[in-house]
Amino acid sequence: MSLPSILVTGGAGYIGSHVVLQLRARGERVVVLDDLSRGFRQAVIDAPLVVGKVGDRDTVTRVLREHAVDTVMHFAAYTIVPESVSEPLKYYGNNTCSTCTLLECCVGAGVRNFVFSSSAAVYGMPAEGSAAESTPTAPINPYGTSKLMSEWMLRDVASAAPLKYVALRYFNVAGSDPQCRVGQASPNATLLVKVACQAAVGKRAEVVIFGTDYATPDGTGVRDYIHVEDLATAHLDALRYLRGGGASTTLNVGYGHGYSVREVLASVERVSGKRLKVREQPRRPGDPPGLIARAERIRAELGWQPRYDDLDAIVRTALAWEQRLLSDPWK
Ligand code: UFG
User: What is the model's pLDDT at position 93?
Assistant: First the structure.
């Protein structure tokens, strides 16, 4: 019988690929399941890749058995909010229904630990612009709802089966592997830091600011940007916590403070030494003015200690990654 493995669904994607690297660096056995619909084969370094869908019961059951999986880290999901609004069933199918199938397979195979990629999108528009784990969930788009429904399934399964979980609610993830091995490679990226870095390396002509009339210090939206490397570490901390007998829990992953759109653009200009062409537009529908994590609980419960809580450090890695993609585009 082989040693137990960790199944990383979506391990060929942006966040999952960073977590796989950290797990392998700690000597963990890892197997990746990814359908490559949004992920990249090149992103899976140093771990076996099974190309398949999380909603495919036979494939999942076979992988869990053949690799003696005792822990699942579940990243595979669609994540584009406007797309979720125009194609809601695609999101409920791929995010919620597939998670249901995955959980059924996990219970059947006796998986003990489950780490779930949730999102700050479950909070919708919290009144004060910040959200603690106790803040009422009120998603305002199908993406957020699809994640919240998965959280609920997980909670209920964990009270009926010997499976424990940590659900991590990510705030605004940015940056890339400091060694530049992996990063966000999706062709139609919409996330601010990536878009601004693409403009800085000449891949885009301009950056649009969506809304300059918010009740924020400089009128633009404020978010809690967290380095993907620190986010990845939170998953390893969650694993250690669960293995150590920790109870199921749901935690925000953010730094607890935010930056405005203008501050992000200023950082990209500072780090790149380039002037960005900026165009101001009306607000993007569905954007909250501010969304910042109340982030004390993850430090207390998991002992999480972020190392990259610095906007310029985030931008530096994001920019290095865009420069790498210029000479070595991922397809
Ligand atoms: N923004 C711009 N111009 C752009 C892109 C973004 O001004 O080209 C602004 C937005 O209006 C917002 C901020 O930059 O004020 C951040 O926007 P992002 O699109 O980078 O990220 P969001 O906050 O909209 O959403 C992200 C993820 C979601 C997740 C959410 C949780 O995309 O998956 O964080 O907070 F649900």
Answer: 98
Q: What gap in Å lies between CA 272 and CA 23, rounded to an integer?
A: 31
Q: Name residues of the chain where pLDDT drops below 70.
A: 1-2
pLDDT at 1: 47
The residue whose C-alpha atom lies closest to atom 25 belonging to ligand 1 is 172
Asked if residue 185 belongs to a domain, the reply is no
* 282 neighbors 214 (Cβ within 8 angstroms): no
pLDDT at 331: 83
Whether residue 143 lies in the annotated active site: yes
With a 6 Å cutoff on the Cβ, whether 92 touches ligand 1 is no
Q: Are residues 140 and 212 both part of a single domain?
A: no
Same-domain pairing of 237 and 289: no
Which one is catalytic: 143, 165, 214, 259?
A: 143
- What pTM did the predictor assign? 0.97
Q: Which atom of ligand 1 is nearest to the CA of 209?
A: 7
